[in-house]
Write a structure and sequence with these properties.
The complex is a heterodimer of chains A (184) and B (195). Chain A is mostly helical and 184 residues long. Chain A has ten helices and no strands. In chain A, α2 packs antiparallel against α3, α2 packs across α4 and α7 crosses α10. Chain A starts with a helix and ends with a helix. With 195 residues, chain B is an all-alpha fold. The chains are: A mainly alpha (184), B mainly alpha (195). Chains A and B meet through α2, α3, α7 and α10 of A and α1, α3, α4 and α5 of B.
C-alpha cells in the first residue's frame, strides 16, 4: 500500500523526526493545497485549513497503520478538517459560495496573469455549481486519488450514491466548462 | 438502439469502478472489449478522459515554500515539548501500551504521596491556638504593666505633695496642708525620741 521511501519517512515521523515530516508532506503539498482551495473556493482559508490538516497529520501519524493507503489517510484528514470548518462556519460558507466567491478567490492573486485568472475563475464557477457531495466526490477522486469505495466509506454514503454523484459531477462540469468556454 | 442505451447506462454506472480496477476480472475484460470495439462506449470513455485531462490542465494554485515550511514548523512544534509522554499515550498496541501507562500513573501517585508527606504544611488548628495564646499574653502583660504603673504613681507620696502644692488653686488649703504635714513630721520625730 505504501512505497518504500514513503514507508521509511512515515516510520521516522512516528519517531518525531520533523525533517522526515517535511519531506513526506512536500510530496503531498500541491495536491492537498489544491484540494482545499477548490473545496472552499478561497486561498487564504485553504491555507488555514492546510495548517490545521498538517497539525492533525503530525499528531495522528503514530496511529497510522500501513495497511491503509497513506494518501487516502491524509486526504481523509483534510476532508474532515474542511467538513468541520464548514459546519462551524456555515453562514460564512453560504456567503462565500454564492455571493462574492470570485472576488474572494482572486483578490489575493492579483499578480496572476489575466488568462490564468480567467481560467481559474471559469473552473471555480463550474465547481461552485456542483452540489457539496458532487464536488467532494470529484475532488477527493481527482486530488486524493482515492478509490470510490474509499470515498464512500469516508463520506458515509453507499457506493452507488457516490458513483452517481461522480457521474453528475462530470456531466455538469462538462456542460458548464463547454458553455463558459463558448461564451468567452 | 435500446440495447445500446442500456449498455451506455451500464457503462456509466461501472466506468468509475472500471477505472479503479475494482470490477470482477470478466467484467473488466468485457468493458475493455467494449471500449475497443463499440464506438458509442469508446466515445463515452474518451469524453470522461478528456474532461479529466481538461480539469488537470487548469492552472494549479501554488503555495510558497517558505509559507509551507512555516506551516510544518507550526504543526510540529506543538508536539516537541513532551514527545515521549505523547508517544506513551498514543500507542495503538494495547498489550504494549498498558504496562508503561500503569507504571507512569503509579510513579505519579507515589511522587504525590511523598511530596505530601515531606511538605511542612502548617496545622491550621495548632497555628490558630498559638496565635490566640501569643496575642492574649502580649496584650494582657501590657495592660497589667500599665495598671501597675498607674497604681504606683497614685500611691507615691511625693506625687500627692506635688499635686497639692503645685496644682491646687487654693492658697489657704496649701498652707493648711503644709502645716498639717509639718505637725505630722514633728509627731513622728517626737515618737522616735521617746524610744
Amino acid at each position: 500500500m505504501v512505497d518504500y521511501l514513503e514507508s521509511i519517512l512515515i516510520k521516522r515521523c512516528k519517531d518525531h523526526d520533523t525533517d522526515a515530516f517535511t519531506q513526506l508532506m512536500t510530496m503531498y503539498k500541491e495536491h492537498l493545497f489544491l484540494y482545499l482551495v477548490r473545496k472552499c473556493g478561497n486561498r487564504e482559508r485553504a491555507e488555514d485549513l492546510l495548517q490545521e490538516t498538517l497539525i492533525k497529520i503530525w499528531k495522528n501519524i503514530p496511529k497510522y497503520q500501513e495497511k491503509e493507503k497513506f494518501s487516502s489517510w491524509i486526504f481523509s484528514i483534510a476532508h474532515n478538517v474542511s467538513v468541520d470548518y464548514h459546519r462551524k462556519n456555515s453562514v460564512r460558507k453560504i456567503v462565500s459560495n454564492f455571493e462574492n466567491l470570485d472576488d474572494m478567490l482572486y483578490e489575493e492573486n492579483i499578480s496572476l496573469d489575466y488568462e490564468r485568472k480567467e481560467r481559474l475563475k471559469l473552473l471555480n464557477d463550474a465547481l461552485s455549481n456542483l452540489s457539496e457531495l458532487q464536488k467532494e466526490v470529484f475532488l477527493l477522486r481527482q486530488h486524493g486519488e482515492m478509490t470510490f469505495r474509499e470515498i464512500a466509506k469516508l463520506t458515509n454514503q453507499p457506493l452507488n450514491t457516490v458513483l452517481s454523484h461522480m457521474n453528475y459531477a462530470v456531466k455538469k462540469l462538462k456542460k458548464l466548462l463547454r458553455t463558459e468556454n463558448a461564451e468567452r | 438502439m435500446q440495447k445500446d442505451n442500456h449498455l451506455i447506462e451500464e457503462f456509466e454506472k461501472e466506468v468509475w469502478l472500471f477505472l479503479d480496477n475494482d470490477l470482477p476480472s470478466e467484467r473488466m475484460s468485457f468493458w475493455e472489449t467494449q471500449i475497443r470495439n463499440n464506438l458509442v462506449i469508446k466515445q463515452k470513455f474518451e469524453e470522461i478522459q478528456n474532461l479529466i485531462s481538461e480539469y488537470d490542465a487548469f492552472p494549479s494554485e501554488e503555495l510558497e515554500h517558505t509559507k509551507f515550511k512555516a506551516m510544518i514548523s507550526n504543526a510540529t512544534k506543538r508536539e516537541r515539548l513532551f514527545p515521549n509522554l505523547k508517544s506513551l499515550f498514543s500507542s495503538n498496541n494495547d498489550s504494549e501500551s498498558v504496562i508503561p501507562k500503569i507504571a507512569f500513573v503509579t510513579s505519579l501517585t507515589i511522587a504525590a504521596i511523598v511530596m505530601l508527606l515531606l511538605s511542612q504544611k502548617p496545622n491550621p488548628v495548632k497555628e490558630l491556638s498559638t496565635e490566640l495564646f501569643e496575642w492574649n499574653d502580649e496584650i494582657t502583660t501590657t495592660q497589667i504593666q500599665n495598671i501597675s504603673n498607674s497604681i504606683s504613681l497614685v500611691d507615691n507620696e511625693n506625687l500627692k505633695n506635688y499635686i497639692m502644692y503645685n496644682l491646687s488653686s487654693d492658697e489657704w488649703s496649701r498652707d493648711i496642708y503644709s502645716i498639717k504635714n509639718q505637725i505630722q513630721n514633728l509627731d513622728e520625730k517626737t515618737n522616735q525620741t521617746e524610744f
